[in-house]
Amino acid sequence: MFEAEDPELRIRAGSWILAAGVGMFAIQAQAAEKVTQERVMEIIEESCTFCHGDRGEASNPIYPRLAHQNRDYIVKQLKNFRDGRRKSDIMNEQAADITDVEIEALAEYFAAQPPLAHPLPDDEQERLLHKVGAYIFKYGDPYNDIPPCSTCHGKAGEGSKTLPRLAGQHRQYILKQLKAFSKRERTNDNAIMHSVARRLSPLAANGVALYLSTLKPLSE
Ligand code: HEC
Ligand code: HEC
To answer: Which CATH number fits domain 124-214: 1.10.760.10, 2.30.40.10, 1.20.120.30, 3.40.50.300?
Structure first.
């Protein structure tokens, strides 16, 4: 390294080398981020849009909405699909070749999309079913040892850093997951939801799935 006799010059040379180092690092970091951003849009268009929609709205009610889903929850599920801990013929294949950085960028993209909600039903029978669901969500089923969903998934079904957002999700997907938890066919992290879902009657499960699909963010 450059050694100067003059102590002041030595300091100046040192800080120049430091500044150059920081600059290089920033350029490299920016380049890595940019590649990832482009790569992410490419992955979404090539591999995800067909089922989950451009902005996570989902093209069909059997596919989960990813719009506004919580970032860390998405990261965890994608990693679990990739390593096979959460089994799904479709998603195990979709996640097989995605890297950690790509997973994080995909999660950030979908988490940043605006939340969506289904309209309230106008059929009388469905409206009453919706009320059954509201009760289960807020109070659980105290006669059957089922805790309120809202204690973990949030007052408006918004979830948390690690817990999934349920608000506005497709009813059909929610029902399918409740069945999968109940039979332990959802293979990753199913302990809590298995104990909840196995006690839900079909009426309660249908009610709560319908109710959740209509939940909007609290501010609306
Ligand atoms: C052919 C349809 C299809 C494609 C393409 C697809 N998915 Fe999925 N995805 C599904 C299905 C079906 C599930 C639900 C799996 C289950 O039943 O557990 C799912 C689940 C998920 C979940 C978990 C959601 C939750 O609420 O737990 C995430 C995250 C996800 N997909 C992300 C992606 C990403 C990112 C891509 C693109 C790389 C992608 N998917 C491509 C069909 C698809
Ligand atoms: C004690 C906490 C707790 C309670 C109470 C609870 N859940 Fe969950 N729920 C979880 C956890 C934890 C997960 C995520 C598991 C994972 O990370 O894979 C989850 C996941 C889910 C999922 C999957 C979401 C997705 O996007 O795939 C659904 C659906 C769900 N819960 C519905 C319910 C309903 C309906 C109730 C009330 C009847 C309820 N939960 C009560 C903790 C809870």
So the answer is: 1.10.760.10
